[in-house]
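A.,

Following up on our hallway conversation. C-alpha cells first:
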C-alpha cells in the first residue's frame, strides 16, 4: 500500500460517514462510527458525536486500523 494513495482516498471522502475498527493490545477491538472530519499530513480525524478522534495513516498501512467508507 502506498501512503499517498491512502491520503488521496481520505481526502476524497472528507465529510462522509466512516467506520474505523481499531485492533489494540490483547485482542481488544474498538469500533468508531462518525464523519471523516479533517486530513492533515500525518493524521486524519473523525467526528464522533461532537468529539474528534485522530488516527495516523501509518496505523492503516500496518493493519492496526481498518476504515470502511459508508
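Then the amino acids I'd put at each of the 70 positions:
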Amino acid at each position: 500500500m502506498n501512503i499517498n494513495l491512502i491520503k488521496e482516498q481520505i481526502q476524497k471522502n472528507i465529510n462522509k460517514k466512516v467506520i474505523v475498527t481499531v485492533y489494540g493490545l490483547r485482542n481488544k477491538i474498538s469500533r468508531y462510527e462518525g464523519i471523516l472530519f479533517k486530513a492533515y499530513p500525518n493524521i486524519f480525524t473523525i467526528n464522533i458525536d461532537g468529539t474528534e478522534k485522530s488516527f495516523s495513516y501509518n496505523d492503516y498501512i500496518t493493519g492496526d486500523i481498518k476504515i470502511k467508507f459508508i
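The two ends are 21 Å apart (CA to CA). Curious whether your intuition agrees with the design.

B.
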